[in-house]
Specification:
The protein is an all-alpha fold. It is built from 12 helices and no strands. Helix 3 runs antiparallel to helix 9, helix 7 runs antiparallel to helix 9 and helix 10 packs across helix 11. It is globular and about 60 Å long.
Length: 268
Amino acid sequence: MDKLDANHVHFTCSLKGDLQDRLNSAMHGIGKPPALMLPNPKMTSHDLNIKNYEIPCFEPLHDLANMIKNVITELPYQIKDPIIQKKLLHFSHTTNGERNEIRGPDARLALIKLSQFLDEINSKKRKLMRTLYKCEGRTQKLIPRLYNQTMLFAATCRTMFCSPVKMTTRKFFGSHFHRITIHLAEAFIIFSLRSILTEEQERCFGDLRRISRNTTNRQPGNIAENCIVRFNYQQKEGNKQNFFHMLDSFISKQARLLKQHPRSAFTA
């Protein structure tokens, strides 16, 4: 309510639907506070010595993985051919299933497999998949190339998914779509996106969760120390790292089997 008062939002509606619409309009564009401000939310950024704290406008791991998941989920419902639609529904179910989250490697591999399938049936939808291919390295040539790709991706999505069926328009064209089409190329100008790819770091969350669930008595005093010892021992063995490198190598080999990019062309 403090934030509503600060933004001079006044309302008298009592119905939940009307109130939701009012809040969606009033709170539009208001982001979450930086994580460093959560312990002391009433202190200013100057007092916390984070006045120059900068939040990246794009998260490659989460935005690309979730956008790929949304496309795979919605694509079957935009296909009129019943045979192709059935195959895509099966692909979507085996890829996404009932999971709320999808890992970065799984999303990249699913995108490659879907692209291979669309190339085989010579579908017009394959242009959408091509716009999601990643750029290798970072050069002066690839920066405008990425601007072209994001623009082409946005235009293709607007045409293909103008009326989403499986999910709402707000969810499909939400924050992940916005950051990819607006901020991806902007961020690419400033720094290499690989430098903020947190996939390697976030892979440890699953291990820590599994260790704390299976090897502790779930008492707060025993969880942290036990997790640190067991996790460091796992990392020292090196098996996990070898597995991740093998997975990335397999995905790269599959990507090289795809057809070459055509030049991006825009009509008048």
